[in-house]
């Protein structure tokens, strides 16, 4: 059974940093792409970043490029999103998701709230 559990959200001032984590289990990691998405109040969920587990190729939304970094820990089966230079518009629930190869993101965590105050 696949399980994704996010943690590490919280309240931070604009310009600050925060790291959110996703503990993953039940996946065949050599075939998976891990993604981070976010959903702000009243808005649709949007893509933030993704990483192909095997090889570590990363991709970022333009809105976070240069400020956010996705990474993984193979030993812990965890993926992280380091968020620097946070802005109030980064406020959202952040979700971890997993997709196999070129398929859709079928597996989702419960989300963690990130709030950036101005």
Helix content: under 10%
How many angstroms separate the termini?
40 Å
Most strands sheet? 7 strands, mixed
Poorly predicted ranges: none
Total helices: the number is 0
Query: Assembly type of the shown chains?
Result: single chain
- SSE succession: EEEEEEEEEEE
Please state roughly what percent of the residues sit in beta strands, choosing from under 5%, 5-15%, 15-25%, 25-35%, 35-45% or over 45%: over 45%
Backbone CA Rg: 13 Å
- The coarse silhouette is globular
Mean pLDDT, rounded to whole units? Answer: 96
Number of strands: 11
Pairing-aware structural class of the strands and helices?
A: mainly beta
In short:
The chain is an all-beta fold and 118 residues long. The chain contains no helices and 11 strands.
Keyword list:
single chain, 118 residues, mainly beta, seven-stranded mixed β-sheet, four-stranded antiparallel β-sheet, 11 strands, 0% helix, 56% strand
Question: How would you describe this protein?
Answer:
A hairpin with a 4-residue loop joins strand 7 (68-73) and strand 8 (78-83). Helix content is 0%, strand content 56%. Strands 2, 4, 5, 6, 9, 10 and 11 form a seven-stranded mixed sheet that branches. A four-stranded antiparallel sheet has the order 1-3-8-7, with no helix packed on it. With 118 residues, the chain is mainly β. The chain has no helices and eleven strands.
């Amino acid at each position: 059974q696949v399980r994704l559990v996010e943690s590490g959200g919280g309240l931070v001032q604009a310009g600050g940093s925060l790291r959110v984590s996703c503990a993953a289990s039940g996946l065949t990691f050599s075939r998976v792409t891990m993604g981070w998405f976010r959903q702000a109040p009243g808005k649709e969920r949007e893509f933030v970043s993704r990483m192909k587990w095997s090889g570590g190729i990363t991709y970022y939304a333009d809105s976070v490029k240069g400020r956010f970094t996705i990474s993984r820990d193979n030993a812990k089966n965890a993926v992280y999103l380091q968020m620097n230079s946070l802005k109030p518009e980064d406020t959202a629930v952040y979700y971890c998701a997993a997709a196999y190869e070129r398929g859709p993101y079928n597996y989702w965590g419960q989300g963690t709230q990130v709030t950036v105050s101005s």
